Structure formats: C-alpha cells, structure tokens
Predict the structure.
Amino acid sequence: MTSSRKNKTLYIDKEAASVLELVANSLLKPVTKLMNEEESQEVLKTGLIDGQSFPFPFVLAPSGKKNEETIKSLQAGDEITILCDGQEFATLTTEETFQIDPKERVKHIYGTDDLTHPGVMATIKRIGNWALSGEYKILHGIKNKNKILIEKAKERIGAKHTSSLMMGANPLHRAHERLIRQSLENTDLLVIFLLKPYDSANLKFEIRKEALEYFINNFLPKNRVIIVPLENSYIFAGYNEIIIDAIVAKNYGCNRLTIGRNHAGLGMFYDCNSNKSIIDKVTGINIEITVASEYVYCDECKTLVSKNTCPHGQHHQISYHADSILALLEAGILPPAVLMRKEISSFLLSKLFPNRFKNLEKLYYDTFPVKGLLEEHSEKDFYLELMKLYQTTSLT
C-alpha cells in the first residue's frame, strides 16, 4: 500500500528527465522501471535483461546534498515528487534505496573513470552516492508523436523494412548525404535520429534540423524519410552507445540500424582468432546492425567513393571531418562544394553570421551579373552566387 507521506522532493536536471521519458515511452524496453540493487547487480554480471543486451543498470542517483538526504530517509512505499527545473515532473513510489559508487557507474557507461575524459567529468558531477528504485509516473506526459508518425508512414507506403541512422549532421556534409542515400537504397523507409545534445556547442539543433530537412525535401523521395529528434543524453555515450542506439531504434519500429565506421562505440577487439566489435556482443535485440563504408573524395576518381572500392592511396583522398568543415563555417569561410552542398553551406553561413554585410544589395550588384531589375536578395542568395564564381574555371 502506498504511504500517505507525500512531502519529500527529489531534484533532477533535463538530461535525467529525458532518460526517464525514454522508459516511460517504452523506448528502452525491456527496461520498464528504475532497477533495485539485486536487478542492478544482475545486469552488471550478465549484461542482459530478460535475455536482451543492456549495458548498465538503469538507476536514478542524482547528486546534491539535499537529494542524498532525501533518498537516505525514504522507506518502501513512500511517494516522492520529482522536480525538473522547478516544475513537478514525476511521482515515484519507493521500492528500495541503496548505495552506489559514482566512479564505478561512469566506468560502466564510458568504459573508463578517467576524469580527464570530458564525458566522465561531466557525468560524475551529476551522480550521487545513493540510488532509489520503483515505479514512476510522469506528470503531464505527452504521447510520443514520432512513434505514431513512423507507424503511419509505414502503413502509407506499405514498408516491409524500416532502417535507421543516428546522426549529428554537425554540419551536414557530402559524406552524410551519401550515407543517407546508400541507406535509403536498401530499405522502404528511413528514420534519421537527429541527435540533440545538452550543450550549446557547435551548430544549434534547430539549424541542423532545417538543413537536413532542406536536403530531404529537395533531393530525396521525402515520403520515405523521417527525422526524429533524439535527446543525446549521457546514456548514449561511451563504448556501449551502439547497444542503446539499437534498443531505441528497435523500439521505434526499425528493423535495421546503420552506423558509420568511425562511430565512437564501434571499437574493434581481437577474440578467438578474429576481429570483433561491440556488435558481436549484442544479444536478443531483433535488429540488423550494419557498418557503413567510410566515404572520401578521391582526386583521381574525381568523385565521392568508398574507401573499400577506391584503389588510390590516402594521398589522393579527402576525408570528411565534420569538425574541420565546421571550423571553416565558424570562421565565415564558404566550404568547397566538394565538401558540402552549396545550398547547405549558404544556409548555414547566413544563420551563423546574420546581417554580416553593411550594404548587401550593393555588394551583390557589384559582384555578380544581374538582369537589370532591382530585386531583394538574402545573404543565402549572396553565398550561392559566390559559390558559382568559385566554381568558374576559365581563368584558372
């Protein structure tokens, strides 16, 4: 029987709240609730829940002196209110409280407890010494519209196969485009999970989403591609990331998951006289996981190619490093079209440097051939015309 004591409060941040929402929306099944100590130890021992891979215990252990005092005072049956950003987020009926080791917790997530690792440092600050388990209910919860959207799209086109990609698109470049096209070639419906991190570094999520939507709406059969925002919380970090990716994709209704060869969690190891990866350890998740080729631009082939099919050496190949392309954009430089589609780079620069030019119209008419009519032009128009001049070869 639930206790009548309802005055106790726990404080969590948005990142923890997003993970609780994943479970509430059945996106981390077979996990359905916060684990107790016995269940946690079983996961650590076997790496399984109900015969399915799950990399670490699903527990709630928020840091902070008040949170620790509250958790230590709880008894079985106590109901507690969980606050996020000062608002009531959920209620939880306590099953059990128990101590954990924060350093061991991050080690299970990241594969290391080295505090020089940026993810470890950020996560360990958020983890307390006490965890609590039990059933919880999210208040004012909204039904996951994306699951419904995917199901309707599958019905509409009669999809037998639904593939998925986890992508930051930070920024969207030519190799991303090739990966998307290649994935779409072998499926009926493609779900792109666009990662939404909790820091403000690099391109904002809304800008990346708009760039990806532009590419889909103008260069792909848009009825076969769906973008799903995915809160990129700490549980998606570390060497177990692929397992969580596969679980989420499966619970969204996908039966295939494609990952890049440079995926952070892919890490190869040698076992039983053969090379293996974390994929070989995935058990019980009914989803096909494939590793995509690494794409480069070859100045001999004169096109974008897979490293697996290009006979020319690395000295002829240009790799697509998102951080370096982003560095060009952040410096206000228009990346070459071989690295990024001009419509995308023009859009991104116009967002990164709004109202950059004092007299855009004069600059536009002084720089480009015009039809003689006075027309208004945006900064995106300016960058598009500038790229055309960059691509002119008659004087080079």
Observations:
- The longest helix spans residues 205-219.
- Confidence is low (pLDDT under 50) at residues 1-5, 265-276.
- The chain has three domains: 9-138, 145-295, 321-390.
- The chain is about 35% helix and 20% strand.
